[in-house]
Amino acid sequence: MPRLSSRIDRLPPYLLASIPARKRELLARGVDVIDLGAGDADLAPPEEAVEALARASREPSLQRYGFGLGHVPFREAVSAWMERRFGLAFDPMREVVPLIGSKEGIAHLALAYLEPGDVAVVPEPGYIVYQGGTVLAGAEPHLYPLRPRTRFLVELDEIPEDVLRRTRLLYLNYPNNPTAAVAPRDYLANVVRQCRERDILLVFDNAYSELAFDGYRPPSIFEIDGAREVAVEFHSLSKSYNMTGWRCGWAVADPAIASRLAQVKTFIDTGHYMAVQAAGAAALGAWERFVPANVAVFQERRDAAVAAFRAAGFDVEVPQATMYLWIPLPEGVASAEFAERLLADEGVVVLPGSGFGAGGEGFFRISFIVEPARLAEAARRAGRALEALRAAV
Ligand SMILES: Cc1ncc(COP(=O)(O)O)c(C=O)c1O
């Protein structure tokens, strides 16, 4: 057998990878499965995007290689949206990097900034790609446990000095997957200051910037003074526009940083299908019409999920953003056992906290991505599964 690289052995398990097969198996047995696993809603993308894709798919010039430049109107739409949404100016040609989904860029960025011996600070629980990208770049993830004690914020002061000295990258994601935590502005200002002092690249994953409730408006990291020198921010159409499968996102950063991500990509992909970029531009153009109504649907689902899981005996906080509830389990109930029981006995997919790393133990995540009635049914089943587990102790 050909020898594998040591990187492969160091990759963490990918929680969502095994779920589709388990789900198919249950469906084939006639089980009424409710899937609250992935952050992937059952809602439709904007009509503007669908029509733009249809048109663009017939346009011969858009069927060719996009290369790194891609479809210039997409870059321009990103730049215009960053201005409308955050009041920030980004040069569409030098400060925007079109991505095949933000995951792709987040993973590849590590190749530009990390090498063996370097450390990346990775929040745990967190989006597993931070760890994956770090390991694939041959560097060392330093896992920082996100716990209620710090309001699920990464406190750099708590990281040992010898680790910080080797730290090149810090991944932050607020609004946060999976904890649904949000970051106060003074916290972000402090992190930017620390990254500047220590020459750490701040990778700010803003995939949930638009999914916020009750009037809360998540900031861009670039609203913080001094961030342009040390930060790169990732955005995605996936969650705000129900376009997960379309694979469309972008990074914004100072040209010195953006050009390095673009350089890595030059050797890995040949650009993104330009018709999808045309659709992405249309989606961004429809932001004012589409996103508030879409967020209202999520807010209704959030309220339904909170009420239903509380009624089923769970201790649930009301999240200000994201499409997740991060729900604590009673002392002594292992999250993997609970999630397995709930799937096997009740046909409900949730994600165990421990699947996001040891720091996530004691919690499970649900995505409020289905209709309120289904959320209520899922919560009832979750309550039964918890009762059964407790009875067995
Ligand atoms: C925190 C976070 N960042 C990035 C992504 C990736 O989104 P995309 O579909 O743009 O690759 C996700 C998707 O679940 C996510 O939860």
How does this structure look, described?
The protein has 393 residues and is an alpha/beta fold. The chain is built from 13 helices and twelve strands. The strands form three sheets. The chain has a seven-stranded mixed beta sheet with strand order 2-8-7-6-5-3-4, sandwiched between helices. Helix 6 (129-136) links the parallel strand 3 (119-124) and strand 4 (140-145). It starts with 5 loop residues before the first helix and ends with a helix. 49% of the residues are buried. The structure holds pyridoxal-5'-phosphate.
Summary keywords:
globular; 393 residues; binds pyridoxal-5'-phosphate; single chain; 14% strand; alpha/beta; 3-stranded antiparallel β-sheet
Gist of the model:
The protein is α/β, with parallel strands linked by helices. Helix content is 41%, strand content 14%.
In helices, the fraction of residues equals: 40-55%
Overall average pLDDT = 95
**Can you write the helix and strand succession as a string?**
HHEHHEHEHEHEHEEEHHHEHEEEH
The percentage of residues in β strands lies in 5-15%
Q: What small molecules does the structure contain?
A: pyridoxal-5'-phosphate
Q: By helix and strand content, what is the structural category? A: alpha/beta
Measured distance between first and last alpha carbons: 45 Å
Query: Largest beta sheet: what is the strand line-up?
Result: 2-8-7-6-5-3-4
- Total count of helical runs of at least 4 residues: 13
**Rg estimate, integer Å:** 21 Å
